[in-house]
Amino acid sequence: MSTSTPIDTFVRDHLPPAEQWPEFIFERPELQFPQRLNAVVPLLDDAVAGGHAARPAILGAGIRWSYGQLQQLVNRIARVLVEDLGLIPGNRVLLRGANSPMLAACWLAVLKAGGVAVGTMPLLRAKELGDIIRIANISHALCDATLADELDLAHGLETTLAHCLLFGTDGELEQRAATKAADFSAVDTAGTDPALIAFTSGTTGVPKGTVHFHRDVMAMCEVFPRHCLKPTQDDVFVGTPPLAFTFGLGGLLCFPLWARASTVLLEKLAPEPLLQAIQDYRATICFTSPTAYRQMAGLVSKYDLGSLKKCVSAGEALPTDTRDKWRDASGIDIHDGIGGTEVIHIYMASSPDDYRPGAVGRMLPGYRGMIVDDDMHPLPVGEVGKLAIKGPTGCRYLSDPRQTDYVRDGWNLPGDAFHMDADGYYYYHARIDDMIVSSGYNIASPEVEWALLAHPAVAECGVIGAPDEARGQIVKAFVVLKPEFRPGNALATELQNFVKNTVAPYKYPRAIRFVDTLPRTETGKLQRYRLKALR
């Protein structure tokens, strides 16, 4: 790109100062990225150039795009962005839509054209969209026609949004793209140019925009897939996490393309439709949440899952009981992992061959970890403290003072309480904010939840600390029952005794409230802060 080419430097100008960045580590050979890098080239263009043009890339309702067809569509959309909408490198493009082949093509086109993709969850309302438009100073939007109303309202709230095209049935984007040439050379971006802004999924109710570079997109592909999942070009990916969530962006788009495999993108895959999709598309790799695996376990016998080989869980802690129930029902052990929007994807994981009961896993190659106290001093083996990590990716919030809460002394602090054993396996306890201190005892909310989930009456549950004058806090559980059970004092007492016999008795829930549903994000994460508001 010539030096005279105009570039929008807003994202670069609003990154935290360099001294607040984490330390980045690129010691491994697969993490040696070229200085000039546009992530769409290795993910898509190189696949076509390498002889994969005829292989299936993206599958959907009535859609079966090869790598060659996907490349041509991406090129045409990139031309629409540049030629019709005046996109210049660095402009932010809001993407709004449920998982679909067209949304994936739009994401790839934005990056190929040098833009910065800003994915948004389909359920966001006008105010939330307006906040994102304002924070990221967004100028362009590509939106599914079925979700246009809230974006129209947001457009009225924020004036930076100058261009919006709709896609879907009779979409103007498809009409314009059809008139464009099918070739487009990827904009010559640097590996350290911004590629996407990922907004946190909102378990705290206060979203933050995390900036990731083109090299970060490729780094996530070179860690978990290469060293743990190990997909091949014959795999078919499917799952539930939205592409707006980095768990879904990696697992349902970038990882399949990196492996030259194919991916199934369908809207609103609840447990039964997901099982149906696995059967219909002969999917081999599934990405979804622990809650979904638990719900699907009782339905497996209704479907032919003979194609399924690997299952990945992330987004929240995987209860041992859920892991066991899924294995008993499907015969498949889950690949467990933990990652985060701030680090773009999974940095700690275990495969079925490397699973240690109770542990999430070990740091993946390329990442380092330690357990620290409040002053960043390393803690001994077996002692519970804060997880600190560093590697090829890390946190850079966009114009947010909370950067210094997440990054200290070059380390990322995801906010999780762990302990580590002598062999480097990490054991999750809770989010730091979800540790309950009752009568001097430290109690992890997930441990109590896992104990409750093992009871046959419990479909879902959430545990918080509730204020108590005598104990400081007590353990309070919100329980969703399976349809065949009815709430009552007798069942509450039974659940309390069950927990006492499963974990240390002082951890049992002294208060139980039966509810119809639990508050969750679109990605399935439990929103404990909303439970605290119910107490």
Q: What is this structure, in a nutshell?
A:
The protein has 535 residues and is an alpha/beta fold. It is 31% helix and 23% strand. Among the domains are: 38-54 and 64-189, Rossmann fold (3-Layer(aba) Sandwich); 438-534, ANL, C-terminal domain (GMP Synthetase, Chain A, domain 3, 2-Layer Sandwich), CATH 3.30.300.30.
Structural account:
With 535 residues, the protein is α/β, with parallel strands linked by helices. Among the domains are: 38-54 and 64-189, Rossmann fold, CATH 3.40.50.980; 438-534, ANL, C-terminal domain (GMP Synthetase, Chain A, domain 3), CATH 3.30.300. It contains 17 helices and 26 strands. A nine-stranded mixed beta sheet has the order 2-1-10-9-11-12-13-14-15, with helices on both faces. A four-stranded parallel beta sheet has the order 4-3-5-6, sandwiched between helices. It has a four-stranded antiparallel beta sheet with strand order 16-17-20-21. Helix 2 (40-52) packs across helix 3, helix 3 crosses helix 4 and helix 12 crosses helix 13 (320-330). The protein is globular and about 70 Å long.
